[in-house]
Amino acid sequence: MKIPPYLKKGDTVAIVCTARKFMPEDAKPAIELLESWGLKAKLGRTIGLDSCQLGGTDAERIADFQTMIDDENVKGIWVARGGYGTVRIIDSLDFAKFKKHPKWIMGFSDVTVLHSQLNVERIASLHSIMPFTVPKASEEVKETLRKALFGEELSYVIPSKSYDKKGKASGELVGGNISILYSLLGSKSSLNTKDKILFIEDLDEYLYHIDRMMFNLKRNGYFEKVKGIIVGSMSDMHDNEIPFGQNEVQIITEISKEHNIPIAFEFPAGHQADNRTLVLGKKVDFEVNENEIVLRFKE
């Protein structure tokens, strides 16, 4: 696994659209945040474009992202917001130069498409807040992104719950939005979870959809040799008039019950204000005990 060079003051971070549109005036909080860290912001050509709710046509988004991953003066790329659209461009991107000179790519939600493809390419990336979510992010959450970008020590210790599954594991952290992971099954961007710690989260889904996606991940071998599961926020879940009968915790616990692995629920990452940065592709020590959930990123 290649770890991109950590940033230093004076470096440039590009802000681009790979999915939903994002206006220049909305980028101001993110620009100010980067500048407060001593970094420079560069707005891509897709910022301000609007094509059927996307930040430009597929061709425009491909060209903008390709320019930024090939630009040697750009040391990080921050995807402006999620929504939908990254999958439309992923197969047209050329990562040949990027693999030789990797840089940090940041974001969550629909950016899971990029995270998954980069894991296939064996390059680490950051599951983090995006320019769109900066205004709602706490100082603590912003600080986790700064630490990750500058290569400072990153670890999390949070209270455990009675329904967490106790245990210890070490491995490479992978994952992201479960709907995106599900949609990538069978493609060249699909993850290999063998001996890894899988992180999943989602937003605005029906409970039976979560069940269906989890079963499909299981049928594709996602849980056979995985070493642990971290479940982030499962926000705004819905049920039908005739209840499904299980909540998201029960669904995930039931489907993974045959595997003797630690499972942590309600980890502070995903579609919520407390969306702490995760370094996907990096090795971690993961423990769930009676009192705490501990996640430590290794050097």
Describe the structure.
The mean pLDDT is 97. The chain is globular. By secondary structure, the protein is of the alpha/beta class. 47% of the residues are buried. The strands form 2 sheets. A 7-stranded mixed β-sheet has the order 6-13-12-7-8-9-10. It folds into 2 domains: 12-150, Rossmann fold, CATH 3.40.50.10740; 155-297, Glucose Oxidase, domain 1 (3-Layer(bba) Sandwich), CATH 3.50.30. It has helices spanning 28-36, 58-70, 96-100, 112-120, 139-150, 178-183, 207-219, 248-255; strands spanning 12-16, 40-43, 74-79, 104-107, 125-127, 155-159, 167-177, 196-203, 228-235, 263-264, 278-280, 283-288, 292-297.
**Topology as H/E string?**
EHEHEHEHEHEEHEHEHEEEE
Number of strands: 13
Beginning-to-end CA distance, first to last residue: 12 Å
**CATH homologous group name of the largest domain:** LD-carboxypeptidase A C-terminal domain-like
CATH topology (fold) name of the largest domain: Glucose Oxidase, domain 1
Outline: globular
Give the overall average pLDDT.
97
Q: Structural class, from secondary structure content? A: alpha/beta
CA radius of gyration: 18 Å
| Total of DSSP H or I helical runs spanning 4+ residues | 8
Kindly estimate the percentage of residues that lie in beta strands according to DSSP. Answer: 15-25%
Which CATH first-tier class of the largest domain would you pick?
A: Alpha Beta
Strand order, main sheet: write it out.
Answer: 6-13-12-7-8-9-10
**Share of helix among residues?**
25-40%
Question: Which residue ranges are poorly predicted, with pLDDT under 50 across at least 5 consecutive positions?
Answer: none
> From the coordinates shown, what is the CATH architecture of the largest domain?
3-Layer(bba) Sandwich
Overall tally of domains: 2
Q: What is the makeup of the main sheet? A: 7 strands, mixed
Organism: Flavobacterium ardleyense
Domain LD-carboxypeptidase C-terminal: 170-284
Protein name: LD-carboxypeptidase
Pfam families: Peptidase_S66 (PF02016), Peptidase_S66C (PF17676)
